[in-house]
Amino acid sequence: MSSLIHPHARFKPYHSAAGGWGSAHSVMTILWREQALAKSPKALFKQNKPDGFACVSCAWAKPGNPHALEFCENGAKATAWELTSLRTEPEFFARHTLSELRSWSDHDLEQHGRLTEPLRYDRASDRYLPVSWEQAYREIGQTLRRLSPEQVVFYASGRASLEASFMYQLFARAYGSNNLPDSSNMCHESTSVGLQESIGVPVGTVTLEDFEQTDCIFFFGQNVGSNSPRMLHPLQHARRRGVPIITFNPLRERGLERFVNPQSPREMLGPDSTVISSQYHQVAIGGDLAAVLGISKTLLEMDRVAHVEGRPAVLDHAFIAEHTEGFASFVEQINSYSWATLEQRSGLPRAAMEAAATVYARSERVMLVFGMGMTQHRHGVANVQMLVNLLLLRGNIGKPGAGVCPVRGHSNVQGQRTVGITEDPAKVPVDKIEALFAFKVPEQMGLATVDTCEGILAGSVKAFIGLGGNFLRAIPDTSRMEPAWANLELNVQVATKLNRTHLLPGRDGWLLPCLGRIEIDRQDGVAQSYSTEDSTGCLHGWRGTAEPASEHLRAEVAIIAGLAEATLTAGQANIPWDAWRRDYALIREAIAAVYPQIFHDMETRMWQRGGFHRPLPACERQWQTESGKAQFVTAGRLDEDDDVSVSPERRDVLQLMTLRSNDQFNTTIYGYDDRFRGVHGTRSVVFMNRSDVTRLGFVPGDWVNLRTAVEPDVRREVGPMQIIAYDIPAGCAAAYYPECNALIPLWHHAERSKVPAAKSVPVTLHPGQPSAQDLQRALAQGEQIV
Length: 786
Ligand SMILES: Nc1nc2c(c(=O)[nH]1)N[C@H]1C(S)=C(S)[C@@H](COP(=O)(O)OP(=O)(O)OC[C@H]3O[C@@H](n4cnc5c(=O)[nH]c(N)nc54)[C@H](O)[C@@H]3O)O[C@H]1N2
Ligand SMILES: Nc1nc2c(c(=O)[nH]1)N[C@H]1C(S)=C(S)[C@@H](COP(=O)(O)OP(=O)(O)OC[C@H]3O[C@@H](n4cnc5c(=O)[nH]c(N)nc54)[C@H](O)[C@@H]3O)O[C@H]1N2
Ligand SMILES: [Mo]
Prior knowledge:
Rossmann fold, globular, molybdenum, Barwin-like endoglucanases, iron, single chain, 3 domains, alpha/beta, Dimethylsulfoxide Reductase, domain 2, Asp_de-COase-like_dom_sf, disordered N terminus, oxidoreductase, binds molybdenum atom, 6-stranded mixed β-sheet, disordered C terminus
């Protein structure tokens, strides 16, 4: 793919805090470039406000009393990206064939602007041509009727509202399919599986109020400064109250180190930033199981000594006895590992684990925050459950200021699950759906994301409908998947911007442009409202505030209704698609009828200041697990991969994590800077420990290709990339997603949750050949590689 390297590529360590002037500058640059404020100057003031719209970026909680500007650098970028004045109209496709566009970068495709009209792929000219909405619905409906339901997949990316998501899963099921994969299959599915088993709810238990009451916060594998920056405000307040924050991350992420609030004039002009983490432990990639076992081992020992000396216990024995099961085998597991093993596998000295344990033991109300660094591993589910074990040792679930806090990704990804987007029919109220809508919910388990990919490779999946997202770019094993994907008989993509998935249209490709969340959604002349659920299980109502990017756009709700009406035959179900399309309050009524406990009185409650919380039994210490207790779960083994030497000094195979820069939202690439990590103008880099660089015979600045070190008969390779010597544990490396997705074998996923193990890909390095152009650019900059 072209233009991965920008003419101004350079690497320079970043010494400032997260937020601050760097953030303000970055926001202004993108607002200016997209000319977004010219079109909708008030939009930023409405972001995350009771009378405004839910930010389209991350799923972090929205406070009841928001700041004047309740958004962050990356939220502002996401808004500007959607409100851009630029357009990708039918004339654009008249000028460019899809073969040509496949050489464009992710950034250039989306940056060209908003899609404006429905399009259909024309094989003869290799172009998208405009069509009418009616033709699109009719012909897609005809094809769907011809295919059998188990051959069709209904993907959802995690942005669509509760209303659209509820309709989407109903459409799929009335049609006859539970094939409802979504982005959480690549994201927090390890959390949903792990937490459900451990504490009887699939979601986190922490709310914003808990941040005000906690006395200790642990952070595992989440990059708050780039990926949920609004959380820096409650973290900053917590630090000011003296709350310790203990971080486990292979990289020293700037947002976890220091923060200057860009919305505080005093802080912006003053010399001080808030130190966020009081302890920072650079655990090896995949080393967290061992690290938490080390902390737990210390706690056991402290408890033993306290008992001998007649001091108060360190563990909460009353809680463990009354509320948990599995403690004895957890203790047995802890005792089975020597400190030498735990040090080797975690990459941390014993003293580091003891330091974390000491603070944990002193604290009465501990919260534990985590992200993709935990879930995207072969041991993703075990990681999540190990974190819960730690909390259970001192009764840190089900009391104020304590609990588990997975930071979700897409702004409504948690809500989509709540209203039925799941491949597992056992997770939806089948009786209610059947009684209300007069159809039989299919009993067969549907396909999640990895299963869908396997089905596409095998040819058993013949049609794909995407409600948002960039599936073909976000999944693993992209160079194996792309050729298979081209065989799809039907490919329907509902989207706001052009992306690589759209450039492989299969045999019959449709591109249906929809309204973004920030835009006013008028049905029969009346502006509609909608709702979402954030990362803390809090539900909110929202309205768009900007004029639509084009008069031809349709709302996601309208598109789903149109497709459903054209597909389902009379008598197949009794669902009032047209009435729902005209009045979203009726959809919410239907949601409340199916899920009364959560959604009763939705129409008033969703407008309460700060929204409302869905009931979570675990918060009341009611454990809806198999045993009726909270569960200590013992991890099977500590090794991430059998293929990688446990001793970092001897590895020619490095453990690669693929992650986000500060200038992207998933596959949406806003730009080529990763300010906090000191990278400017390029994404073609691999971060390595200096000792590994030398040991493997390279010097910083060398160009290398990365090759997957397992399954040698399949060549998986990406590059060339330039080596940056970086502060990362020996034996570990990091590079950017989605460019590296071709390296991840499809089968290399978490046990049980099937989340691709994007944070632990065993790779080897091979001298790479930069193009003459790349070299010239790099030399012209005289760049400094540190
Ligand atoms: N601006 C912006 N915001 C976003 C997104 C975005 O792309 N851009 N994406 C959204 C989505 S969908 C999601 S899921 C979230 C993702 O947000 P994050 O969960 O922060 O995801 P990543 O950027 O992939 O970074 C994961 C972090 O885990 C660390 N890590 C990797 N491996 C390990 C490990 O083995 N152990 C430990 N302890 N740490 C590890 C990495 O160093 C990195 O800091 O953000 C959401 N918000
Ligand atoms: N290697 C590696 N792979 C990963 C990850 C990783 O860390 N490493 N992270 C994984 C994670 S956590 C996730 S969540 C997935 C993300 O996977 P996806 O959710 O599939 O991808 P996105 O990049 O978020 O999708 C971007 C596209 O969504 C469309 N879009 C934007 N807004 C709207 C809207 O309002 N409506 C509609 N209909 N379309 C819209 C635009 O056309 C845009 O091009 O990727 C996963 N893949
Ligand atoms: Mo995600």
